[in-house]
Amino acid sequence: MTEKTTDDASTVLLLGAPGAVGRHLGLQLAAAGVRVRALTRRVDRARQPGYVLGDLRDPRSLQAAAHGVDAVFLGWPFATAEGAAEAVAALAGEVGRVVLLSSAAVQDVPGAGPYSPGRPDGEVEALLAAGGLRHTVLRPHGFAADALRWAEEIRAGGAVRGYGGGAGLNVVDERDIAAVAARALTEDGHDGARYVLTGPESPTQAEQVRIIGEAAGREVRWEEIPREAARHRMLTTGCPPALVDGALDFLHTRTATPEPVTTTVQDVTGRPPRPFRAWAADHAHLFR
Ligand SMILES: NC(=O)c1ccc[n+]([C@@H]2O[C@H](COP(=O)([O-])OP(=O)(O)OC[C@H]3O[C@@H](n4cnc5c(N)ncnc54)[C@H](OP(=O)(O)O)[C@@H]3O)[C@@H](O)[C@H]2O)c1
């Protein structure tokens, strides 16, 4: 799609390196000959090659970590955008470009900018845009790895109990998100893009459970529970009521209308996104 301009001298700073996407991104960049510097809060890990000690909440450590790098991969793994303005300002003077791991929950409201009720992603996107940094935004749908929430029930065998088994969700493989990020970090032509990332299809939650069961060799089925029971269960985890109700409404809507898929992974990387079946096969051991 774009001309590759990576050379051996490129250095990318990963903020959130051990995370679901970051761990694949680090491997993919290293395989492409890009130097990777990964921020970690852990003193023991920071002693290992390729790591640098720092904290997303500590702008001075970010500025030091970003010194001399060509590009930054930024995830914001917090419930609010508190501290994000300081983090963006710390990066602004140091780096050429930023690739932000945002979320498909962000909507573009004409005249008001990116908006994500109950989540910080929209605000962080707006801060990056206002900060004058060259940047690319990745807006993935749900990660395939979110299926690990069912691992305990699948390992136990029998049933996975939940609400919205018929909801069709276009889950995206973290390796494909990382592949798009790697392109945006190392190629020209992605500045200002807002990439909505999905898998190639939208299996229902019940189908996902069945696919994992087949991959792991476990007899497992979806057992639907009433919405009120699901609501009660989610509230006991401390999730705010507005977010719980929003998530349940979403599942209800997607039962009638599965999430649409995009061609962005293919367009940017030249390779089709992995189907959920591939993720399940590669992670089957986690469900045995
Ligand atoms: N899960 C989904 O379905 C989904 C869907 C769309 C978008 N997203 C977006 O994905 C992002 C989360 O990505 P993820 O799932 O990769 O997160 P994750 O797996 O939870 O990883 C978060 C990373 O951030 C690091 N971290 C946490 N606090 C830090 C701090 N104070 N300073 C430095 N590093 C810190 C963690 O390091 P440690 O290992 O040291 O703790 C970890 O490496 C969010 O922006 C979310 O909106 C997620």
Description:
The protein is an alpha/beta fold. The protein has 2 domains: 130 residues, NAD(P)-binding Rossmann-like Domain (Rossmann fold, 3-Layer(aba) Sandwich); 108 residues, 3-Layer(aba) Sandwich (Rossmann fold). Helix content is 38%, strand content 18%. The chain is built from 12 helices and 11 strands. Strands 3-2-1-4-5-8-10 form a 7-stranded parallel beta sheet, sandwiched between helices. Strands 6-7 form a two-stranded antiparallel ribbon. Helix 1 crosses helix 7 and helix 8 packs parallel to helix 12. The radius of gyration is 20 Å and the shape is globular. Bound molecules: NADP nicotinamide-adenine-dinucleotide phosphate (NAP). NADP nicotinamide-adenine-dinucleotide phosphate binds next to strand 2.
Characteristic terms for this protein:
288 residues; Rossmann fold; 2 domains; seven-stranded parallel sheet; two-stranded antiparallel sheet; 11 strands; 38% helix; binds NADP nicotinamide-adenine-dinucleotide phosphate
State the name of the first-level CATH class of the largest domain.
Answer: Alpha Beta
Instruction: Note the total helix count.
Output: 12
Q: Kindly, what is the distance between the CA atoms of the first and last residues, rounded to a whole number of angstroms? A: 40 Å
Detail the poorly predicted runs. 1-8
Give the CATH topology of the largest domain: Rossmann fold
**Helical residue percent band:** 25-40%
Mean pLDDT: 94
Strand order of the largest sheet: 3-2-1-4-5-8-10
Order of helices and strands: EHEHEHEHEEEHEHEHEHEHHHH
What's the main sheet like? 7 strands, parallel
- Secondary-structure-based class equals alpha/beta
| Shape assignment | globular
Which small-molecule species are bound to the chains here?
A: NADP nicotinamide-adenine-dinucleotide phosphate
Please give the number of β-strands.
Answer: 11
Strand content: 15-25%
C-alpha-based Rg, rounded: 20 Å
